[in-house]
Write a structure and sequence with these properties.
Helix content is 31%, strand content 23%. By secondary structure, the chain is α/β, with parallel strands linked by helices. It has a domain of 150 residues: FAD/NAD(P)-binding domain. Helix 3 crosses helix 15. The chain starts with a helix and ends with a helix. Keywords: Membrane, Transmembrane, Transmembrane helix.
Length: 551
Amino acid sequence: MSGQTFYKDELSAYLQRRSFLLRIGLITGGIFLNGCYKKIRSNGYNIPGSLQGPDAKAGHILRDKLKLPAAKSTRKVKTLIVGSGISGLSAGRWLKKNGETDFEILELEKHTGGNSYFGSNKIASYPLGAHYITIANNDDALLIDFLKEIDVITHFEGQLPYYNDYYLTFDPEERLLINGEWQEGLIPDFGVPIADKKEIRRFLSEVDLLKNTRGNDGKFLFNIPLSSSSADENYRKLDRITFEAYLEEKGYRSKYLLWYLNYASKDDYGQKIKHISAWAGLHYFASRRGKAANAEQNAILTWPEGNGWIMKQLAGPLKDHIKTSSLCCDLKPMTNGHTLVTVLNTKTRLTENIEAEKIILCAPQFVNNRLLKNFNRNIDYKAFNYSPWLIANITINELPESKGINLCWDNVAYNTPSVGYVNSAQQHLKLSEDKKVITYYLPLCDFEPAVARLAAYSRNYEQWLDIVIPELEIIHPGITKAIENIDFWVWGHGMIAPAKDFIWSDNLAKAKLPVDDKIFFAHSDLSGVSIFEEAFHQGINAAKQVLHVAS
C-alpha cells in the first residue's frame, strides 16, 4: 500500500469525525462558572500561544482501522514493552535491574512520559500533567529504594528517611482564595461559619481514624499501592456506592466541606463526588501516612517540570531501549508461542514486524481493546472511563496584588471550575523573579467524559482563551494585561475515573490477568487511581511476572 493512499485514508477519517461533531450539534460554546452555565463569546484576546496535546492523529489510526503499508522486515525481541509512561519505564527499570537486557520500549509519541510529560520556554520548565508525589508510605520498600536510587532520599536518621530538601515543596505551600482573601491551606476556613468548621473537623477526624485503622486481615483499610489495602468486605463494599451517597448518609451537608471534597475528587480523579466511589473518595484522604526525618507527614515532593523530573530519572538509564514515534498497531499469536507485533513508524510511515516472546502492554485499556482483537480477555472495556483535562501554562510578567497570604506553590480559588494553578518557579532558588509560568488545571467534568472529550477536541485556541481568562480574572482581577503567552495542552484521556463498583470489581481483577503467560499488563487504570505510585508498582508487578515465567 502506498504512503499516498495511507494519507488519503487519514484525511477521510478526519472528515468523518468532523462531520459527526457538526451533525450532533455538540456543545462547544460554554462552561460552568460559579455554578452557572456561561455562553462563550469571543473577546478577541490578543494573547499569543499554542494548542497542543498527545498525538491524537497517530493514536486514531487504531480507532479508525486505517490500512497500513505492508511490513518489509521482521526482527526478534525477547520482551516488548508497549508504552513509555511511568508504568512502562518502571517495568523496563525492573527488567534491567534484574539482569534482563533484551527488551524494547515502544512509544507512540516523540517523547517518553505519558501524562508525566513536561514542557519549557525561556522562562521556566513546567508540567503538562502530573506535577507532584507525596513522601512514600514507610512500608513501601520498593518505592523507597527507588527514591534512594535517584537521591530523593539522601539517607536515614534512625528509622526515618531524610528527603532531599530541594525536592520538598518550598514554603509557602498552599493557599485558597475564599471570601475575598487568600488564606493559608486549602481547607476552607476564612469567613466560614462555625457550624461548617465543626462539620469539616468531624470529617477530618473520621478520615484520620480510617488512615490508621486495619481491616480484619491486619492490613490498612486504605493503602498505596491499592493492592496492599485490606480486603475487609465491611469497607470494600464502599466501592459499590458513590462518595456523594456516603457523605449524605453520614450527614455531611456543609457547602464548604462538599466544595473541598469535590475539589479533592477532581484533583486526583478528574470527576466530582457524585461520579466516584466512596472507597476511592476516602482513599484520597486515608491512604497516605508517610513519615520523614525532615518533613511533616504526607509532605509533597515536586520539581519545576512536575513529575517530568522523576520520569527523566526512570527514562535516562533506559535510553538505548526506547524507540519513540513507534505505534503498535496489531498483535497476532504465532504457532511457536510468540506474538507477532506490527509497528508503524509515524515519522517514515513505514511498518515492521517484531516477533516477541513476552509483551508488557502499558497502554490504557481502550487502546488494548483495539490491539488485542485476536485474543480473548473476556472483560468489559466500557467500564473503563477516562477523565479529560485542559492544562494551560501561562507566562506572566507579574501577578496583581491581592489580600492575604502571598503566592504559594499551589493556588486554588473557592467555587471556580478549575482546581487552581501551581507556580513552577516555587522550586527555583532565586529569591525573586519577575516573569513566571503558572500551570492551570481544568478537569472537564461538567459533562459525561465522552461528550466532554469530543467538545475539548473540537475547540480552538481562541475558544479556550474565552474559557480560561474569565476565571483567571475572578482569581486575579487585572491579570489579563500581565499575560505574555498561554500554551494549552488537552488530555482527551487524562486519567482513569474510579466510578462506583470499579476498583474492586471482578471486571478489573480479570483485566489484570496475563494472556496465556505471554502478554502482561501494566497501567494505572488497572489500579483505578491514576497516581505515580500506582503506575510505578504496576510496571514492577508486570516485570516480575515476565521474569517469573521466563525462569
